[in-house]
Amino acid sequence: MDASTTLVAAFLGLLEGLTEFIPVSSTGHLLLAGHFLGFESAGRTFEVVIQLGAVLAILTVYSARLWAVFSEAPHDPQARHFILSVLVAFLPAVFVGVLAHDFIKTVLFETPLLIAMMLILGGIVLVVVDRIAPPTTEPDAMRFPLSMALKIGIIQCLAMVPGVSRSGATIVGALMLGASKRAAAEFSFFLSMPTMAGAFAYDLYKNRDVLDASAMGEIAVGFVMAFISAVIVVRWVLDYVGRYGYALFGWWRILVGGLVILGLWAGA
Question: What pLDDT, on a 0 to 100 scale, did the predictor assign at position 199?
C-alpha cells in the first residue's frame, strides 16, 4: 500500500467516523468521495467494513450504560424492554438486507447521481421534519413502545439506498412518531450497533473471496481513523441536537448533493 493510498484510506476513515452518527449518510459521503478520488475497493468492502470502527467507538462511549442495561436485564423489566425494542427494530434490516444485498452493492452503490439526489431529498425532508415534527410523547429512548420500535426499523430499511442515511431515516421516523430530538438520536445510536455489526459480518462473508492483503491494509487505516473521529462525534452530537435540532445537517446534505451534481455535470 503506497503513501497516496494510505492518505486516501485515512481520509475516508475520517469521513466515515465524522458522518456515521449524524443524519447526512456516511455511505453516501464515502462513495461520492471515492468516486471523485478514484478510489474503489474490491466488492465495496472497504466502505462497509470500516464502519466497524464506528461501531466500536459507540460501544466504547456507551460501555458503562450498556453494561448497566445487560446486567440489570435479568431482574429489571425496563432493561429487558429496551433490549427487545432494539432487536425488534433491527429485524427488518436483516430481512431486507439479505434479500437485496447484491442489488444494493452492484447497482445502487455504483450510481453517484442517485446518491446525490438522495442527499438533497433527504436534506429537504430533514429540514421540514425538524420544524413540523409533532409534540414529544416519547422523551426516553429506553421506553419506546415495541410497535414504535418496529416502525423505526422498517423506516431504517430506506437507508439501504445510499445517500438516504441510516441515522437520518431512523431519526426522522422517530421524530414523526413522537420522540424528542435527543431520544431520536439516542435510539438511532443503539440501533446502529446490531445493524452495522450485522452489515459488516454479512458483507465480509459475501466478499471473502475478493479480499487480499493490500485491501486489509487500507481497511486497517480506515478503521482506526473511523474509530477516533466517531468517538469525538458521539460525545458531541446529542448535546447539539438537543439544543439546536437537525436543520444544519439537512442544509449540509442539500449543499453536498448540489455540488456533486454540478461536478458530475462538469464531467468530474
Answer: 80
